[in-house]
Recover the amino acids of this structure.
């Protein structure tokens, strides 16, 4: 602590008990208190800090806005939390090359707002985009509702500057679509802060679509809604978003946001198509017809930007609205092949019921990325969170057995690292660990994340059930 | 190294991995061969073993409604295309050597075509792999689903690794339904500035085209080829936008015919001289192409206007002129923030013109990664000279 102050000055280091408490949690359910918090203002600060930590064998845990949903920013093995709150500038908007160069602490939405006057935007739009940072997006390979047609973070990053755990600064990739040699940028994105600290990011900017069509369709049950998703995709339509919500979620959303979703529907779809104006109405009509073929009781098309925003406000405010139903929730992020939606959704409901808990579903149906919100009330006793976690594990097991993944966009973090053996065999994990050793041989970057740790994972002994 | 390699043709991942473990134990070098269409890339000599992937072929799993397909790495792209076509789908990837190339080779060489800006490249379409490693283990990465962040993205590491980290045995890719309509044009321009202005406008238009390529051969005019595929109204709109831009740029449009295929297959034809391939920031490609045309040994230039990949074919009786011009182009690419390689060169130039004369960003990490995956250095020696 004193060494850090001597190195970086008192203004960049936090160490009092009260200060540290603010950094012991993120958007997930686990907590741990850091030994110190550092607020670097430059790449040089980050490199100096890394060299110091390397010399003293202290773990380094990078942190953006702390909105992560897998405990990625939690210093589970102690050490220094590095907050990028003071490295939040847009360094360059390069319109001719369709690129922007930004610092990691920049808030996601601020980038799209800044480039909108040029008719451009940054595609990944996590629900937390008003708060989450680009550095966090790179670490987690974040998605969002509109990544179905245009890809997630890794498809929109062409270059990074990183600081390794020994203080080495490296530039990977650049403004061109690719560099020669191994795709180090692609290997780094989604590494959850375990390979290095990102200090600068070069992202692709995409021309804003000329127009959009947004529609909401209500179905008697989740089965019809699920089958509609498959039918839309199979018809050759790739919407920019297909979101699904069950009745429990709809009721919570309506009570808080008043998006105008029908309360009696068993399942609701929110579908958006965008692109050139020509053909959009044609596509919208085809989607409407598919919805009606699958017993939709109501199809409502947004006729103004205001109506579109209202429909989306319900979806984006859904997690926050859960407070209406239950004081706590535990959200899972499993992925399944789209065609398995109906049976897995039934299984999700049953898993909750077996543990005496309700489950609400609000998720990215178009790419099969579930977000079951397992509702619990920690005031009723310590076993509530345990029950929620047990139901969550059953759901993830089913996802993997269906040929899917334990996480689609929230990351493994410390929440699911013990579950990695569900999806990967020891040889798969060993191959991943070779990459870890190449970047971080000292093992100081965000320890206790992604890979199973013997101390915390003893109670879980899985054999991979992946297909 | 021996002059004639032993040929090994594994039938599954386990056998493939065992062969590699034995090679590692005996320190025998291994070349991995699909159809051998891109064997001109890299600075490789003879190896002790040639590992053929032809028995690791065939569609393993295709669920049309999930828009994914899992295939053996030795599957020929043409065979995969035929299987997908029967289900009304296609793999949105148009690499050179499109018919003969194998899926594994296309991934290992990160071999893309002109559709990249519209559908994504190999790295964006690949969602899962099974790979035999030098230590005899088999590693799976990614999976069968289109969205997945569990663990490191080793799929990305394999794309463009040229077999230097392992033998890709199986791959899962995203596919799409076949578009209902296709249209295109090719337009001639007197002035390069007009050609590039048109290409720039077309690639950024709201009506997204599938391909937009600028080309010039030695004595020919500047030409811009445009192709649009999709639903009827979107294709009509894209082509009407393109024709308007062409007219505004004083171009003369004619039928597309097989122009794009010819442009795409330049690497297959470029057996003489040298073929330089660079990736550039988008806005740098026009000036780069114009200066390439003025080089002594200039023969042809092909610019993928949507992704910034530029190929220049250099041919001259004087080898020194080819070498000088090739080196100048790679230097120019670096100066504008791009990167490149000598993708192909005539046999007599091999020793004088290395594929990767320059090291890319982060080369020290690449060396460490290679060391971690293949400590004995048996896999494709020379092919990873970029590190």
């Amino acid at each position: 602590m004193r060494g850090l102050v001597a190195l970086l000055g008192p203004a960049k280091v936090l160490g009092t008990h009260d200060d540290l408490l603010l950094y012991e949690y993120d958007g997930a359910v686990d907590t741990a208190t850091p030994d110190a918090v550092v607020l670097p203002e430059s790449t040089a600060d980050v490199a100096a800090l890394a060299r110091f930590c390397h010399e003293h064998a202290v773990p380094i845990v990078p942190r953006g806005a702390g909105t992560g949903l897998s405990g990625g920013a939690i210093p589970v093995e102690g050490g220094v939390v590095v907050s990028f709150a003071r490295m939040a500038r847009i360094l360059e908007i390069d319109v001719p090359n369709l690129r922007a160069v930004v610092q990691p602490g920049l808030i996601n939405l601020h980038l799209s707002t800044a480039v909108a006057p040029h008719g451009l935007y940054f595609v990944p739009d996590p629900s937390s985009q008003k708060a989450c940072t680009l550095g966090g997006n790179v670490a987690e390979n974040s998605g969002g509702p509109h990544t179905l047609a245009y890809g997630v973070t890794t498809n929109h990053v062409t270059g990074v500057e990183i600081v390794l755990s020994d203080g080495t600064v490296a530039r990977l990739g650049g403004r061109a679509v690719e560099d020669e040699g191994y795709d180090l940028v692609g290997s780094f994105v989604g590494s959850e802060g375990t390979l290095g600290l990102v200090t600068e990011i070069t992202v692709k900017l995409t021309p804003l679509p000329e127009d959009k069509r947004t529609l909401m369709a209500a179905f008697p049950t989740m089965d019809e809604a699920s089958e509609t998703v498959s039918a839309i995709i199979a018809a050759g339509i790739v919407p920019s978003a297909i979101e699904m919500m069950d009745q429990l979620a709809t009721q919570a959303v309506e009570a808080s946001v008043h998006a105008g979703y029908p309360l009696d529907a068993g399942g609701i779809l929110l579908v958006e198509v965008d692109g050139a104006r020509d053909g959009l109405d044609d596509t919208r009509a085809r989607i409407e017809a598919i919805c009606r073929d699958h017993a939709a009781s109501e199809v409502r098309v947004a006729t103004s930007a205001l109506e579109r925003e209202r429909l989306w406000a319900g979806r984006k405010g859904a997690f926050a609205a859960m407070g209406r139903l239950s004081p706590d929730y535990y959200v899972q992020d499993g992925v399944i092949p789209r065609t398995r939606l109906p049976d897995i959704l039934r299984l999700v409901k049953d898993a909750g019921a077996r543990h005496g808990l309700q489950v609400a579903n609000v998720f990215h149906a178009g790419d099969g990325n579930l977000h079951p919100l397992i509702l619990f009330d920690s005031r009723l006793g310590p076993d509530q969170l345990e029950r929620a976690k047990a139901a969550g594990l059953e759901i993830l097991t089913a996802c993997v057995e269906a040929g899917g993944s334990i996480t689609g966009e929230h990351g493994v973090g410390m929440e699911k690292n013990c579950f990695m053996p569900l999806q990967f065999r020891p040889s798969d994990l060993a191959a991943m660990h070779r990459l870890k050793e190449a970047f971080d041989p000292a093992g100081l970057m965000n320890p206790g994340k992604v890979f199973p740790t013997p101390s915390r994972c003893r109670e879980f002994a899985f054999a991979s059930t992946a297909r | 190294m021996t002059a004639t390699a032993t040929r090994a043709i594994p039938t599954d991942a386990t056998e493939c991995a065992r062969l590699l473990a034995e090679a590692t134990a005996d320190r025998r070098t291994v070349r991995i061969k699909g159809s051998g269409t891109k064997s001109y890339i890299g600075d490789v000599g003879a190896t002790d073993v040639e590992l053929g992937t032809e028995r690791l072929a065939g569609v393993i799993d295709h669920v049309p409604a999930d828009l994914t397909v899992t295939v053996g790495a030795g599957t020929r792209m043409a065979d995969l295309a035929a299987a997908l076509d029967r289900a009304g789908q296609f793999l949105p990837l148009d690499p050179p050597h499109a018919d003969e190339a194998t899926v594994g080779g296309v991934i290992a060489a990160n071999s893309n075509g002109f559709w990249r800006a519209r559908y994504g490249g190999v790295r964006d379409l690949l969602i899962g792999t099974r790979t035999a490693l030098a230590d005899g283990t088999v590693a799976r990465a990614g999976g069968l689903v289109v969205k997945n962040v569990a663990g490191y993205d080793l799929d990305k590491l394999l794309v463009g690794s040229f077999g230097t980290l392992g033998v890709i045995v199986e791959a899962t890719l995203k596919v799409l339904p076949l578009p209902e309509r296709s249209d295109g044009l090719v337009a001639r321009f007197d002035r390069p500035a007009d050609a590039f202005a048109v290409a720039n406008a077309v690639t950024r238009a709201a009506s997204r085209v599938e391909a937009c390529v600028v080309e010039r051969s030695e004595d020919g005019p500047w030409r811009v080829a445009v192709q649009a595929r999709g639903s009827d109204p979107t294709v009509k709109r894209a082509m009407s936008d393109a024709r308007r831009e062409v007219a505004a740029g004083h171009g003369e449009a004619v039928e597309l015919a097989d122009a794009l295929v010819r442009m795409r297959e330049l690497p297959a034809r470029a057996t003489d001289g040298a073929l330089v391939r660079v990736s550039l920031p988008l806005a740098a490609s026009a000036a780069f192409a114009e200066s390439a045309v003025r080089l002594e040994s200039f023969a042809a230039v092909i610019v993928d206007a949507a992704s910034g990949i530029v190929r220049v074919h250099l041919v001259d009786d004087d080898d020194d002129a080819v070498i000088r011009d090739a080196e100048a182009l790679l230097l120019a690419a670096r100066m504008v923030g791009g990167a490149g390689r000598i993708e192909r060169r005539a046999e007599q130039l091999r020793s004088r013109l290395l594929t990767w004369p320059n090291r890319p960003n982060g080369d020290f990490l690449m060396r460490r990664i290679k060391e971690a995956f293949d400590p004995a250095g048996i896999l494709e020696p020379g092919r990873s000279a970029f590190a």
User: Anything to note?
Assistant: The two ends of chain B are 22 Å apart (CA to CA). DSSP finds 13 helices and 18 strands in chain B. The mean pLDDT of chain B is 96.
